[in-house]
Write a structure and sequence with these properties.
Elements: H1 3-9, E1 30-31, E2 36-37, H2 58-67, H3 69-82, E3 87-89, H4 95-107, H5 110-124, E4 126-133, E5 152-159, E6 163-165, E7 183-186, E8 197-199, E9 203-207, H6 213-218, H7 226-229, H8 231-248, E10 252-257, H9 261-267, H10 269-285, E11 299-304, H11 310-325, H12 329-332, H13 345-362, H14 364-379, E12 389-391, H15 399-418, H16 424-433, H17 435-438, H18 446-453, H19 503-514
Antiparallel strand pairs: 1-2, 3-12, 4-5, 4-9, 6-7, 7-8, 10-11
């Protein structure tokens, strides 16, 4: 079967060229006579995209970050929001140990260093935070089980221009870091650790915008700055802003026509000096209550400039930057939302959801490794098998809303346990899980939950088979209440179990009295 027969079998014309270019333009409209469409001789067909390697120009990035507030906000907003609220440890760590870990996170400025690491990753396209463990070599793999109490000393942030990744020595072990540099060599002129080699397991890496394979290789296995994609929009926004500011100086122009002005300037001497004195006198006495003195043949005019439409132009450029960064205007520019009944709440919630996604993608893995080291350094023991944490939500409830939600959840759980739907262990687990929202019941420990597992199931209340139906109060005591039988009934069931429903409610009451 020749090429023509194969093309006919696939449904293509028999005379179609083998290169396939004949059907490449069928997806778009073209009119060569009117010069409309892609590929025709019009201005739109001449547009295209090229590379603008701004991320490689370190000085340009630093100038933009230091000089332009909008560039600073583009870099700082997401990084600060990702590390602003902290985390909630949800494993079986004792409440006192949890407080120790949180105090150590503050003392070592962990959140500040992580924030800086994310900032320089977004600005330069890459950064690392080195975990400093006293007494261990930096060029060896980090083993959490070898970290002793008090050895973890914090983080050191080094941006991509302070370290050189080992481009010819990559991670070959299967896993999420496969293909990444195995070592990072610190430059001699770095502010710390100059000339040392750092193993990849000891760093928390922060990247900017991820790049395809060959582009990543061209960037020495780093990513690109968040400013590179919107560089032209930033230039347009700042240019429009400065242009509007320059128009303010021309908002009210005044012109003064002098007959024979060119001849006076050409002659100079006393005639020119007299003209200058006249202009100075007009400027001196011209006010709201003054007069403008001039020759009868001279003409004085005032020209005003209107600024209508400039605010919409600036807003459109600002919206393009906001859309490119996925940061709402109310957060990026501090601009109040416009429109009837517009509060900006939905925009902020969507932005917080985006930040939560970035926390899980770019921060969770490195932070889990750091917390494992911190746990051994502070408490002197390994983390539990079920050790986990959650990022605190950025959308914070007010104290009144938290109290209302806590009361509703507690009442629902207590009612479910009292009705026998769930046991006390499950109820305690539900209460502790709600602590990340309400801040209440977060100190319920695993020991208390394990103790609840040993509770006897509540016995069902049954009638006394030996009671006289005609005289139900035959065994009543002196107060007219029927006495409880201490003897077991048929089948081994007690007549009445006072600890059946409400066991969790009584336990919670005892907890309140202790506190």
């Amino acid at each position: 079967m020749n090429a023509k027969q194969r093309r006919a079998q696939r449904g293509q014309p028999a005379n179609a060229p083998a290169s396939g270019k004949a059907w490449a333009s069928k997806d778009s409209f073209q009119n060569f006579a009117a010069r409309v469409g892609l590929g025709t001789a019009n201005q739109g067909a001449q547009g295209g995209y090229g590379f603008d390697f701004i991320s490689r120009n370190r000085v340009e990035m630093e100038a933009a970050y230091r000089s332009s507030w909008i560039c600073g906000m583009a870099v700082d907003c997401v990084a600060e929001d990702m590390t602003r609220a902290g985390i909630t440890i949800q494993s079986g760590v004792d409440p006192e140990d949890t407080e120790k870990l949180e105090r150590e996170l503050v003392r070592l400025r962990i959140w500040d260093e992580l924030c800086d690491n994310l900032k320089w990753g977004r600005l330069y396209g890459g950064s690392i935070a080195v975990m400093l463990v006293d007494g261990q070599k930096l060029d060896t793999p980090l083993r959490s089980d070898t970290v002793n109490k008090g050895q973890f000393k914090g983080l050191l942030v080094l941006d991509r221009w302070c370290v050189q990744p080992s481009l010819n020595d990559l991670v070959t072990d299967f896993g999420p870091e496969m293909g990444q540099p195995k070592f990072y060599d610190v430059l001699v002129d770095s502010r710390a650790l100059g000339g040392q080699r750092i193993h990849h397991s000891r760093v928390i890496r922060a990247d900017g915008i991820e790049l395809p394979h060959w582009q990543r290789i061209s960037e020495n296995l780093w990513s690109q700055s968040v400013l590179e994609r919107l560089w032209d929009r930033l230039i347009a926004f700042d240019s429009t802003t400065d242009g509007a500011a320059q128009l303010v100086f021309k908002a009210h122009l005044r012109t003064y026509k002098v007959e024979g002005l060119r001849d006076i300037i050409a002659v100079g001497g006393k005639a020119f000096e007299g003209l200058v004195k006249q202009i100075d006198m007009i400027r001196q006495y011209q006010s709201n209550e003054g007069l403008t003195l001039m020759d009868a043949k001279d003409t004085f005019e005032a020209h005003s400039y209107t600024f209508s439409g400039l605010d919409n132009v600036l807003l459109q450029f600002g919206q393009q930057i906001s859309g490119a960064l996925q940061i709402p205007l109310v957060r990026l520019f501090g601009q109040s939302p416009a429109g009837l009944n517009s509060t900006g709440e939905s925009d902020i919630r969507n932005y917080y959801d985006k930040v939560a996604q970035q926390q899980d993608r770019k921060l969770r893995t490195g932070l889990l490794r750091l917390l494992t080291i911190l746990h051994r350094s502070v408490l002197g023991k390994d983390v539990d098998e079920g050790f986990t944490f959650e990022f605190r939500p950025l959308w914070q409830l007010s104290d009144v809303e938290k109290a209302t939600v806590a009361n509703s959840i507690t009442a629902s759980v207590v009612a479910a346990e009292g009705a026998g739907i769930v046991d006390r262990k499950t109820a305690l687990q539900e209460l502790r899980h709600s602590a990340q929202i309400t801040g209440v019941w977060g100190h319920i420990t695993d020991e208390q939950i394990d103790e609840a597992e040993n509770d006897l199931p509540p016995a069902i209340e049954v009638d006394d088979p030996n009671a006289d139906p005609a005289n139900p109060d035959a065994d009543a005591g002196p107060n007219g209440q029927q006495e409880e039988s201490s003897k077991p009934q048929k089948g081994g069931a007690s007549v009445r179990d006072s600890a059946a429903p409400g066991r969790l409610a009584s336990w919670l009451n005892r907890r309140r009295l202790r506190t």
